[in-house]
């Protein structure tokens, strides 16, 4: 089987090694300069500190200084670092990526170019490669409802591979699937990439509904469900503006991933705090203190700018995004009023 090198030994990078190893790939895991303690643990046979699950047997590990060795002869490279680290790691790994047959990406988020323009992460990687005169292999976006700890335990998981060349995503989906790791495939890279950071934004709104229940003792399930539907409609709309298939948001990358993100996870927990009545900055400081990075907070700010950049009245058609943005930035707003105003009544045009 071909060799695959996963860049980033965090929760997702290490977890993805499990189905890949089970599917018979020759798997290498490279840790960044921030990952030594994670590799120390798994190399000693201990559970990975972020997933609490040991690394799959047979996976070869590489330290940050061994990037060249880790990439040598790799047919596929997987970018699995946090979005903030993607430009630097992409630059360092570019020679190896250029020689591979494909670049897969679990990294998710928006990127900001030097001129301030906001884009999706694949655009950032393509610009870095273009600036260095390097031709990239096909890029495969990996998304869907995948909690790293469950994936690492080989619990039943459905994911989706999106590549502009649909034959490429179809072929890799077939090569990486296992009995418990099912892979759908699509040629809608943009649709897949839009949903991933946006679901973190909307998970904050879903958390608000749960926080209201904690505060009042009264369930706010109707509000949560209405917010869920509005969130999917807004993701679909944003995708469509970028040329994506509007239906993509209604499958694994949107509905699936928002469901799993809204059940648990840091963005939802932050929303719960807001719903309970905590002030946005204080709640964020407390999450930071607990080393709980809330990806949805920077994603909200970038999403607002991205939507403004697209223009054409799109911002007015995404009231839930605007409501989350107000909740994060204005300590004076009432969480229930903000979310309710954004999602009631259902907009027939969406
Ligand atoms: N955890 C999940 O269930 C899951 C599922 C799907 C996608 N993802 C995405 O995968 C990516 C990684 O998530 P994770 O859960 O593994 O996160 P993590 O925090 O466990 O690991 C982050 C990885 O990024 C690297 N990194 C962080 N900051 C960096 C920087 N400034 N420079 C260079 N490298 C840096 C770390 O060294 C580590 O390898 C994210 O974009 C996330 O949205 C995660």
Structure description:
- This protein has two domains: 185 residues, 3-Layer(aba) Sandwich (Rossmann fold), CATH 3.40.50.720; 153 residues, Orthogonal Bundle (N-(1-d-carboxylethyl)-l-norvaline Dehydrogenase, domain 2).
- Strand 4, helix 4 and strand 5 form a beta-alpha-beta unit.
- Helix 8 runs parallel beside helix 11 and helix 13 packs across helix 14.
- With 350 residues, it is α/β, with parallel strands linked by helices.
- It contains 15 helices and ten strands.
- The model has no long low-confidence stretch (mean pLDDT 95).
- The relative contact order is 0.10.
- The strands form two sheets. An eight-stranded mixed β-sheet has the order 3-2-1-4-5-8-9-10, with helices on both faces.
- It is globular and about 55 Å long.
- Nicotinamide-adenine-dinucleotide binds next to helix 1 and helix 4.
What does the radius of gyration come to?
20 Å
Question: Strand tally, please?
Answer: 10
Structural category: alpha/beta
Percentage of residues assigned to helices: 40-55%
In the CATH hierarchy, the architecture of the largest domain is 3-Layer(aba) Sandwich
Shape: globular
Please name the CATH topology of the largest domain.
Rossmann fold
């Amino acid at each position: 089987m071909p060799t695959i090198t996963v860049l980033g030994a965090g929760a997702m990078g290490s977890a993805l090694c499990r189905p890949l190893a089970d599917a018979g790939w020759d798997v290498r895991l490279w840790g960044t300069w921030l990952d030594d303690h994670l590799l120390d643990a798994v190399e000693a046979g201990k559970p990975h500190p972020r997933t609490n699950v040991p690394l799959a047997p047979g996976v070869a590990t590489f330290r940050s200084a061994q990037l060249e060795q880790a990439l040598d002869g790799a047919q596929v490279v997987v970018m699995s670092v946090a979005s903030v680290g993607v430009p630097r790691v992409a630059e360092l790994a570019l020679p190896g990526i250029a020689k591979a047959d494909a670049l897969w990406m679990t990294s998710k988020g928006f990127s900001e170019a030097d001129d301030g323009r906001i884009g999706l992460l694949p655009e950032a990687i393509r610009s870095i490669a273009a600036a260095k005169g390097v031709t990239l292999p096909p890029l495969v976006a990996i998304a869907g409802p995948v909690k790293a700890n469950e994936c690492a335990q080989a619990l039943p998981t459905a994911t989706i591979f999106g590549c502009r060349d649909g034959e490429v995503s179809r072929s890799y989906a077939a090569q990486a699937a296992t009995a418990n790791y099912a892979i759908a495939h699509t040629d809608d890279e943009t649709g897949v990439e839009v949903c991933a950071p946006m679901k973190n934004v909307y998970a904050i709104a879903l958390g608000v509904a749960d926080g209201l229940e904690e505060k009042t003792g009264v369930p706010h399930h109707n509000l949560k469900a209405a917010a869920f539907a509005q969130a999917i409609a807004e993701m679909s709309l944003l995708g469509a503006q970028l040329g994506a298939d509007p239906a993509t948001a209604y499958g694994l990358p949107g509905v699936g991933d928002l469901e799993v993100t809204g059940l648990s996870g840091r963005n939802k927990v932050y929303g719960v705090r807001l719903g309970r009545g905590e002030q946005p900055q204080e709640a964020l400081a407390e999450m930071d203190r607990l080393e709980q990075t809330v990806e949805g907070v920077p994603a909200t700010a970038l999403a607002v700018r991205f939507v403004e950049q697209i223009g054409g009245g799109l911002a007015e058609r995404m009231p839930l995004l605007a409501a989350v943005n107000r909740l994060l930035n204005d300590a004076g707003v009432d969480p229930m009023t903000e979310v309710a105003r954004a999602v009631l009544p259902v907009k027939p045009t969406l």
